[in-house]
Amino acid sequence: MITALVGAQWGDEGKGKVIDIMASKADVVVRATGGNNAGHTVVSGGKTYKLHLVPSGILYEGTVCCIGPGCVVDPLALLREMEEVEANGTALDGLRIDYRAHIVMPYHLLIDELSENAKGENGIGTTKKGIGPCYMDKAERVGIRFYDILHPDVFADKLKTNLAAKDKYIGGMFGYKNTALRRAQLKFGEIFKAYTEAGKKLAKYAADTTVIAYDAHKEGKNVLFEGAQGTLLDLDMGTYPFVTSSHPVTGGFCVSGGIGPTFIGECIGIAKSYTTRVGKGPFPTELFDSTGDFIREAGFEYGTTTGRPRRCGWLDLVILRYAVRVNGLTGIALNKLDTLTGLKELKVCVGYDKNGEVITDFPADIHELEDCKPIYETLPGWTEDITAAKSLGDLPQAARDYLAFIEKHIGCKIKLVGVGPDRTQSFEA
To answer: Residue 45: pLDDT above 80?
Structure first.
Protein backbone atom coordinates (compact mmCIF):
# COMPACT_ATOMS: atom_id res chain seq x y z
CA MET A 1 0.00 0.00 0.00
CA ILE A 2 1.06 3.58 -0.65
CA THR A 3 0.66 5.99 2.26
CA ALA A 4 1.13 9.74 1.93
CA LEU A 5 2.20 11.85 4.89
CA VAL A 6 1.55 15.58 4.57
CA GLY A 7 1.96 18.60 6.79
CA ALA A 8 -1.48 19.89 7.77
CA GLN A 9 -0.46 23.37 8.91
CA TRP A 10 2.37 25.79 8.04
CA GLY A 11 5.10 23.16 8.22
CA ASP A 12 7.21 22.20 11.23
CA GLU A 13 4.47 19.83 12.42
CA GLY A 14 6.84 17.05 13.48
CA LYS A 15 6.75 15.17 10.18
CA GLY A 16 10.22 13.73 10.72
CA LYS A 17 9.20 11.88 13.84
CA VAL A 18 5.96 10.49 12.35
CA ILE A 19 7.68 9.48 9.13
CA ASP A 20 10.39 7.79 11.17
CA ILE A 21 7.77 5.83 13.11
CA MET A 22 5.87 4.75 10.02
CA ALA A 23 9.06 4.03 8.07
CA SER A 24 9.65 1.08 10.40
CA LYS A 25 6.99 -0.76 8.37
CA ALA A 26 7.89 0.72 4.98
CA ASP A 27 9.94 -0.91 2.27
CA VAL A 28 10.35 2.34 0.30
CA VAL A 29 10.24 5.96 1.48
CA VAL A 30 9.98 8.72 -1.11
CA ARG A 31 10.63 12.43 -0.60
CA ALA A 32 8.87 14.06 -3.53
CA THR A 33 8.99 17.86 -3.14
CA GLY A 34 11.11 20.71 -1.83
CA GLY A 35 14.79 20.89 -1.03
CA ASN A 36 17.06 21.53 1.92
CA ASN A 37 14.80 24.41 2.94
CA ALA A 38 12.88 21.73 4.83
CA GLY A 39 14.03 20.24 8.09
CA HIS A 40 13.01 17.02 9.81
CA THR A 41 14.26 16.33 13.32
CA VAL A 42 14.31 12.69 14.43
CA VAL A 43 15.34 11.55 17.91
CA SER A 44 16.27 7.89 18.08
CA GLY A 45 18.41 5.89 20.47
CA GLY A 46 19.54 9.03 22.26
CA LYS A 47 20.79 10.54 18.99
CA THR A 48 19.28 13.53 17.22
CA TYR A 49 19.22 13.56 13.44
CA LYS A 50 18.49 16.82 11.62
CA LEU A 51 17.53 15.79 8.11
CA HIS A 52 16.92 18.21 5.26
CA LEU A 53 17.07 16.18 2.04
CA VAL A 54 17.78 12.63 3.18
CA PRO A 55 14.44 10.83 3.76
CA SER A 56 13.75 9.96 7.40
CA GLY A 57 13.46 6.26 6.61
CA ILE A 58 17.25 6.11 6.22
CA LEU A 59 17.47 5.15 9.91
CA TYR A 60 16.03 1.72 9.10
CA GLU A 61 18.35 -0.86 7.58
CA GLY A 62 17.03 -2.28 4.33
CA THR A 63 14.62 0.58 3.60
CA VAL A 64 15.05 2.19 0.18
CA CYS A 65 14.93 5.98 0.58
CA CYS A 66 14.29 8.03 -2.55
CA ILE A 67 14.80 11.71 -3.33
CA GLY A 68 12.17 12.02 -6.03
CA PRO A 69 12.02 13.87 -9.36
CA GLY A 70 10.10 16.84 -7.94
CA CYS A 71 12.80 17.67 -5.40
CA VAL A 72 15.53 20.25 -5.90
CA VAL A 73 18.93 19.14 -4.69
CA ASP A 74 21.94 21.16 -3.59
CA PRO A 75 24.55 18.42 -4.07
CA LEU A 76 27.14 20.11 -1.84
CA ALA A 77 24.63 20.52 1.00
CA LEU A 78 23.43 16.94 0.46
CA LEU A 79 26.95 15.56 0.77
CA ARG A 80 27.48 17.47 4.02
CA GLU A 81 24.21 16.07 5.36
CA MET A 82 25.18 12.56 4.31
CA GLU A 83 28.48 12.90 6.17
CA GLU A 84 26.62 13.92 9.32
CA VAL A 85 24.25 10.96 9.03
CA GLU A 86 27.14 8.53 8.56
CA ALA A 87 29.00 10.11 11.49
CA ASN A 88 25.99 9.18 13.64
CA GLY A 89 26.51 5.55 12.67
CA THR A 90 23.83 5.25 9.99
CA ALA A 91 24.62 3.70 6.59
CA LEU A 92 23.34 5.27 3.38
CA ASP A 93 23.19 2.12 1.25
CA GLY A 94 19.45 2.57 0.69
CA LEU A 95 19.62 6.15 -0.61
CA ARG A 96 18.48 6.84 -4.18
CA ILE A 97 18.34 10.15 -6.10
CA ASP A 98 16.12 10.53 -9.14
CA TYR A 99 17.85 11.48 -12.38
CA ARG A 100 15.22 14.19 -12.97
CA ALA A 101 15.67 16.07 -9.69
CA HIS A 102 16.77 19.63 -10.41
CA ILE A 103 20.04 20.94 -9.03
CA VAL A 104 20.39 24.05 -6.88
CA MET A 105 23.29 26.07 -8.28
CA PRO A 106 25.37 28.81 -6.59
CA TYR A 107 23.61 31.48 -8.65
CA HIS A 108 20.29 30.29 -7.23
CA LEU A 109 21.52 30.97 -3.69
CA LEU A 110 22.85 34.37 -4.76
CA ILE A 111 19.62 35.39 -6.49
CA ASP A 112 17.56 34.17 -3.52
CA GLU A 113 19.57 36.31 -1.11
CA LEU A 114 19.67 39.41 -3.32
CA SER A 115 15.95 39.17 -4.08
CA GLU A 116 14.93 38.78 -0.44
CA ASN A 117 17.22 41.61 0.67
CA ALA A 118 15.90 43.89 -2.07
CA LYS A 119 12.34 43.43 -0.82
CA GLY A 120 13.27 44.80 2.61
CA GLU A 121 10.26 44.80 4.91
CA ASN A 122 8.21 43.19 2.13
CA GLY A 123 10.33 40.04 2.13
CA ILE A 124 8.53 36.71 2.51
CA GLY A 125 11.01 35.12 4.92
CA THR A 126 12.74 32.74 2.53
CA THR A 127 15.41 30.40 3.90
CA LYS A 128 17.77 31.74 1.17
CA LYS A 129 18.65 28.19 0.17
CA GLY A 130 18.08 28.91 -3.53
CA ILE A 131 14.93 26.81 -3.71
CA GLY A 132 12.62 29.35 -5.35
CA PRO A 133 15.10 30.44 -8.06
CA CYS A 134 15.82 26.78 -8.82
CA TYR A 135 12.12 26.05 -9.34
CA MET A 136 11.92 29.21 -11.47
CA ASP A 137 14.61 27.82 -13.79
CA LYS A 138 12.76 24.52 -13.87
CA ALA A 139 9.57 26.26 -15.00
CA GLU A 140 11.52 28.32 -17.53
CA ARG A 141 13.03 25.07 -18.84
CA VAL A 142 16.65 26.12 -18.35
CA GLY A 143 17.26 24.07 -15.21
CA ILE A 144 20.13 21.68 -14.61
CA ARG A 145 19.11 18.21 -13.47
CA PHE A 146 20.91 15.53 -11.50
CA TYR A 147 21.41 13.60 -14.73
CA ASP A 148 23.36 16.55 -16.16
CA ILE A 149 26.05 16.73 -13.48
CA LEU A 150 26.71 13.02 -14.07
CA HIS A 151 27.64 13.87 -17.67
CA PRO A 152 30.36 16.56 -17.72
CA ASP A 153 29.96 17.53 -21.39
CA VAL A 154 26.24 18.13 -21.00
CA PHE A 155 26.76 19.95 -17.73
CA ALA A 156 29.50 22.20 -19.12
CA ASP A 157 27.32 23.45 -21.98
CA LYS A 158 24.34 24.16 -19.75
CA LEU A 159 26.47 25.80 -17.06
CA LYS A 160 28.17 28.17 -19.51
CA THR A 161 24.84 29.21 -20.97
CA ASN A 162 23.23 29.71 -17.57
CA LEU A 163 26.14 31.62 -16.06
CA ALA A 164 26.09 34.11 -18.93
CA ALA A 165 22.33 34.58 -18.58
CA LYS A 166 22.44 34.86 -14.78
CA ASP A 167 25.25 37.43 -14.92
CA LYS A 168 23.07 39.67 -17.06
CA TYR A 169 20.02 38.99 -14.90
CA ILE A 170 21.75 39.71 -11.60
CA GLY A 171 23.36 42.89 -12.91
CA GLY A 172 20.16 44.13 -14.50
CA MET A 173 17.92 43.33 -11.54
CA PHE A 174 20.12 44.34 -8.66
CA GLY A 175 22.67 46.75 -10.18
CA TYR A 176 25.91 45.93 -11.91
CA LYS A 177 27.98 48.07 -9.58
CA ASN A 178 26.44 46.79 -6.36
CA THR A 179 26.68 43.11 -7.26
CA ALA A 180 30.01 43.04 -9.10
CA LEU A 181 31.90 41.33 -6.27
CA ARG A 182 29.29 38.69 -5.68
CA ARG A 183 28.85 38.01 -9.38
CA ALA A 184 32.60 37.49 -9.63
CA GLN A 185 32.17 34.50 -7.35
CA LEU A 186 30.23 32.71 -10.07
CA LYS A 187 33.25 31.34 -11.88
CA PHE A 188 32.70 28.54 -14.37
CA GLY A 189 35.84 26.58 -13.49
CA GLU A 190 35.22 26.49 -9.76
CA ILE A 191 31.56 25.58 -10.07
CA PHE A 192 32.18 22.97 -12.75
CA LYS A 193 34.84 21.27 -10.66
CA ALA A 194 32.84 21.28 -7.43
CA TYR A 195 29.65 19.98 -9.01
CA THR A 196 31.20 17.32 -11.22
CA GLU A 197 33.14 16.02 -8.23
CA ALA A 198 29.90 15.97 -6.24
CA GLY A 199 28.28 14.13 -9.14
CA LYS A 200 30.98 11.44 -9.04
CA LYS A 201 30.37 10.91 -5.32
CA LEU A 202 26.61 10.74 -5.77
CA ALA A 203 26.52 8.73 -9.02
CA LYS A 204 26.07 5.39 -7.26
CA TYR A 205 22.81 6.64 -5.79
CA ALA A 206 21.29 7.67 -9.15
CA ALA A 207 18.05 5.92 -10.11
CA ASP A 208 14.59 6.28 -11.59
CA THR A 209 12.76 6.47 -8.27
CA THR A 210 9.33 6.36 -9.91
CA VAL A 211 10.04 2.81 -11.06
CA ILE A 212 11.26 1.83 -7.58
CA ALA A 213 8.05 3.12 -5.96
CA TYR A 214 5.73 1.62 -8.57
CA ASP A 215 7.39 -1.80 -8.60
CA ALA A 216 7.30 -1.95 -4.81
CA HIS A 217 3.60 -1.10 -4.86
CA LYS A 218 2.84 -3.78 -7.47
CA GLU A 219 4.69 -6.33 -5.36
CA GLY A 220 2.46 -5.54 -2.38
CA LYS A 221 5.15 -3.73 -0.42
CA ASN A 222 4.62 -0.67 1.74
CA VAL A 223 5.56 2.65 0.16
CA LEU A 224 5.63 5.86 2.17
CA PHE A 225 5.57 9.28 0.54
CA GLU A 226 7.26 11.77 2.83
CA GLY A 227 5.96 15.32 2.85
CA ALA A 228 7.95 18.50 3.32
CA GLN A 229 6.69 21.89 4.49
CA GLY A 230 2.90 22.01 4.94
CA THR A 231 -0.49 22.49 3.30
CA LEU A 232 -0.60 26.24 3.93
CA LEU A 233 2.80 26.63 2.29
CA ASP A 234 1.63 25.06 -0.97
CA LEU A 235 2.24 27.28 -3.99
CA ASP A 236 -1.42 27.13 -5.04
CA MET A 237 -3.34 26.16 -1.90
CA GLY A 238 -1.28 28.05 0.68
CA THR A 239 -1.23 31.62 1.98
CA TYR A 240 0.27 33.06 -1.19
CA PRO A 241 2.77 34.76 -1.56
CA PHE A 242 4.05 33.54 1.81
CA VAL A 243 4.47 30.01 0.51
CA THR A 244 7.12 27.64 -0.75
CA SER A 245 7.83 27.05 -4.46
CA SER A 246 6.47 23.52 -4.71
CA HIS A 247 3.37 21.50 -3.85
CA PRO A 248 3.48 19.84 -0.42
CA VAL A 249 -0.18 18.75 -0.61
CA THR A 250 -1.20 15.20 -1.50
CA GLY A 251 -1.58 16.05 -5.18
CA GLY A 252 2.06 17.10 -5.21
CA PHE A 253 3.09 13.52 -4.54
CA CYS A 254 1.41 12.42 -7.74
CA VAL A 255 3.00 15.08 -9.95
CA SER A 256 6.39 15.29 -8.25
CA GLY A 257 6.70 11.68 -7.18
CA GLY A 258 5.48 10.09 -10.37
CA ILE A 259 2.70 8.05 -8.79
CA GLY A 260 -0.90 7.85 -9.96
CA PRO A 261 -3.54 9.23 -7.52
CA THR A 262 -5.52 5.99 -7.48
CA PHE A 263 -2.50 4.16 -6.06
CA ILE A 264 -2.51 6.19 -2.82
CA GLY A 265 -4.37 4.13 -0.23
CA GLU A 266 -4.08 6.33 2.85
CA CYS A 267 -3.22 9.96 3.52
CA ILE A 268 -2.20 11.03 7.01
CA GLY A 269 -2.06 14.71 7.92
CA ILE A 270 0.52 15.68 10.53
CA ALA A 271 -0.30 18.52 12.89
CA LYS A 272 0.74 19.98 16.20
CA SER A 273 -1.65 20.30 19.12
CA TYR A 274 -1.24 24.05 18.62
CA THR A 275 -0.23 26.17 15.62
CA THR A 276 3.14 27.61 14.59
CA ARG A 277 4.49 29.55 11.66
CA VAL A 278 7.94 30.68 10.49
CA GLY A 279 8.41 33.84 8.49
CA LYS A 280 5.87 36.42 7.47
CA GLY A 281 2.20 36.13 6.59
CA PRO A 282 -1.18 36.18 8.37
CA PHE A 283 -1.64 34.01 11.45
CA PRO A 284 -5.09 34.45 13.07
CA THR A 285 -4.40 32.60 16.35
CA GLU A 286 -0.90 33.95 16.96
CA LEU A 287 -0.11 34.74 20.60
CA PHE A 288 2.00 37.71 21.61
CA ASP A 289 1.86 37.11 25.37
CA SER A 290 3.35 34.86 28.01
CA THR A 291 1.28 31.91 26.77
CA GLY A 292 2.91 32.18 23.36
CA ASP A 293 6.31 32.32 25.04
CA PHE A 294 5.41 29.29 27.16
CA ILE A 295 4.47 27.24 24.08
CA ARG A 296 7.63 28.31 22.23
CA GLU A 297 9.95 27.29 25.05
CA ALA A 298 8.08 24.15 26.11
CA GLY A 299 7.89 22.95 22.52
CA PHE A 300 11.37 24.23 21.60
CA GLU A 301 9.88 26.02 18.64
CA TYR A 302 12.96 27.04 16.70
CA GLY A 303 13.49 26.21 13.02
CA THR A 304 15.50 23.09 12.17
CA THR A 305 16.90 24.72 9.03
CA THR A 306 17.19 28.38 10.08
CA GLY A 307 17.15 28.34 13.88
CA ARG A 308 14.59 31.14 13.78
CA PRO A 309 12.06 31.29 16.64
CA ARG A 310 8.67 30.15 15.42
CA ARG A 311 5.52 32.19 15.85
CA CYS A 312 3.17 30.30 18.18
CA GLY A 313 -0.58 30.33 18.68
CA TRP A 314 -3.63 28.30 19.65
CA LEU A 315 -4.80 25.36 17.57
CA ASP A 316 -6.76 26.52 14.51
CA LEU A 317 -9.40 24.01 13.44
CA VAL A 318 -10.37 26.08 10.40
CA ILE A 319 -6.91 25.28 9.07
CA LEU A 320 -7.17 21.59 9.92
CA ARG A 321 -10.58 21.27 8.25
CA TYR A 322 -9.05 22.89 5.18
CA ALA A 323 -6.16 20.42 5.23
CA VAL A 324 -8.58 17.50 5.51
CA ARG A 325 -10.47 18.76 2.46
CA VAL A 326 -7.66 19.66 0.06
CA ASN A 327 -5.52 16.62 0.90
CA GLY A 328 -8.26 14.02 1.27
CA LEU A 329 -6.91 13.09 4.70
CA THR A 330 -7.89 9.71 6.11
CA GLY A 331 -6.36 10.39 9.51
CA ILE A 332 -4.41 12.84 11.68
CA ALA A 333 -1.15 12.38 13.54
CA LEU A 334 -1.26 14.97 16.34
CA ASN A 335 2.13 15.84 17.79
CA LYS A 336 3.38 17.67 20.87
CA LEU A 337 0.36 17.20 23.08
CA ASP A 338 2.80 17.28 26.00
CA THR A 339 3.76 20.89 25.19
CA LEU A 340 0.36 22.05 26.46
CA THR A 341 0.88 20.46 29.89
CA GLY A 342 0.76 23.13 32.57
CA LEU A 343 -1.69 25.48 30.89
CA LYS A 344 -4.81 25.96 33.01
CA GLU A 345 -7.06 26.43 30.02
CA LEU A 346 -6.79 25.85 26.30
CA LYS A 347 -8.38 27.88 23.56
CA VAL A 348 -9.28 26.34 20.22
CA CYS A 349 -10.25 28.32 17.14
CA VAL A 350 -13.46 26.90 15.63
CA GLY A 351 -14.21 29.68 13.13
CA TYR A 352 -13.39 33.24 12.09
CA ASP A 353 -15.18 36.51 12.60
CA LYS A 354 -14.84 38.55 9.43
CA ASN A 355 -16.33 41.97 9.98
CA GLY A 356 -19.23 40.47 11.92
CA GLU A 357 -19.71 37.49 9.60
CA VAL A 358 -18.92 34.00 10.92
CA ILE A 359 -16.93 31.91 8.45
CA THR A 360 -15.78 28.33 8.89
CA ASP A 361 -14.00 27.79 5.55
CA PHE A 362 -10.42 28.91 5.16
CA PRO A 363 -10.30 32.06 2.99
CA ALA A 364 -8.86 31.78 -0.51
CA ASP A 365 -6.94 35.05 -0.24
CA ILE A 366 -4.69 36.37 2.51
CA HIS A 367 -6.35 39.79 2.38
CA GLU A 368 -9.53 38.15 3.63
CA LEU A 369 -7.54 36.19 6.19
CA GLU A 370 -5.96 39.38 7.52
CA ASP A 371 -9.47 40.66 8.31
CA CYS A 372 -10.39 37.52 10.24
CA LYS A 373 -10.44 37.26 14.00
CA PRO A 374 -10.50 33.82 15.63
CA ILE A 375 -13.62 32.56 17.35
CA TYR A 376 -12.50 30.51 20.34
CA GLU A 377 -13.96 27.82 22.50
CA THR A 378 -12.23 27.26 25.81
CA LEU A 379 -11.38 23.85 27.24
CA PRO A 380 -9.77 22.92 30.57
CA GLY A 381 -6.05 22.17 30.56
CA TRP A 382 -4.06 19.64 32.61
CA THR A 383 -0.97 19.60 34.78
CA GLU A 384 -0.12 15.89 34.75
CA ASP A 385 3.07 14.73 33.02
CA ILE A 386 1.94 12.77 29.94
CA THR A 387 5.32 12.05 28.34
CA ALA A 388 5.21 8.38 29.37
CA ALA A 389 1.67 7.77 28.10
CA LYS A 390 1.25 4.66 25.94
CA SER A 391 -2.48 4.87 25.26
CA LEU A 392 -5.45 7.19 25.48
CA GLY A 393 -6.24 5.66 28.85
CA ASP A 394 -2.96 6.97 30.25
CA LEU A 395 -3.94 10.57 29.49
CA PRO A 396 -5.83 12.79 31.95
CA GLN A 397 -9.48 13.33 31.12
CA ALA A 398 -8.88 16.92 29.99
CA ALA A 399 -6.33 15.74 27.39
CA ARG A 400 -8.73 13.05 26.11
CA ASP A 401 -11.50 15.65 25.88
CA TYR A 402 -9.18 17.92 23.91
CA LEU A 403 -8.53 15.18 21.35
CA ALA A 404 -12.23 14.30 21.09
CA PHE A 405 -13.08 17.97 20.54
CA ILE A 406 -10.63 18.19 17.65
CA GLU A 407 -11.97 15.04 15.98
CA LYS A 408 -15.54 16.27 16.26
CA HIS A 409 -14.82 19.62 14.64
CA ILE A 410 -12.59 18.48 11.77
CA GLY A 411 -14.44 15.27 10.88
CA CYS A 412 -11.27 13.20 10.79
CA LYS A 413 -9.93 10.54 13.14
CA ILE A 414 -6.77 11.18 15.17
CA LYS A 415 -4.79 7.99 14.59
CA LEU A 416 -1.49 8.83 16.28
CA VAL A 417 -0.73 10.97 19.34
CA GLY A 418 2.74 12.34 20.11
CA VAL A 419 3.69 13.09 23.73
CA GLY A 420 7.41 13.74 23.38
CA PRO A 421 10.28 14.05 20.85
CA ASP A 422 11.49 10.44 20.86
CA ARG A 423 10.04 7.89 18.44
CA THR A 424 8.90 5.85 21.47
CA GLN A 425 6.79 8.76 22.75
CA SER A 426 3.85 8.20 20.42
CA PHE A 427 0.91 5.85 20.47
CA GLU A 428 -1.99 4.84 18.25
CA ALA A 429 -5.24 6.45 19.29
So the answer is: no
Is 31 in the same domain as 56? yes
- Angle, CA of 333, 337 and 342, to the nearest 5°: 170
- The rounded distance, in Å, linking the Cα atoms of 30 and 6 is 12
Say if residue 184's pLDDT is above 80: no
By percentage, how much of the chain surpasses pLDDT 70? Answer: 95
Determine whether 102 is an active site residue.
no
Catalytic residue among 20, 27, 40, 102: 40
**Cα separation, 11 vs 233, whole angstroms:** 7
What confidence tens digit (pLDDT) does each residue in 361-390 have?
Answer: 999 999 999 999 999 999 999 999 999 999
Cβ-contact 258, 213 below 8 angstroms: yes
Specify if 96 maps to a domain.
no
Which of the 8 DSSP states describes residue 71?
B
Query: What is the per-residue pLDDT across 319-348, written as a single tens digit (0 to 9) for each?
Result: 999 999 999 999 999 999 999 999 999 999
- Beta bridge pairs of residue 51: 40
Q: What is the CATH number of the domain that holds 106?
A: 1.10.300.10
Query: 12 catalytic, yes or no?
Result: yes
User: Is residue 95 situated within a structural domain?
Assistant: no
Question: Is residue 11 domain-shared with residue 85, that is, in the same domain?
Answer: yes
pTM comes to 0.89
Strand order across the beta sheet in which 95-98 lies: 206-207, 95-98, 64-67, 28-31, 223-226, 2-7, 264-272, 331-335, 414-418, 426-428
Q: Indicate whether 324 belongs to any domain.
A: yes
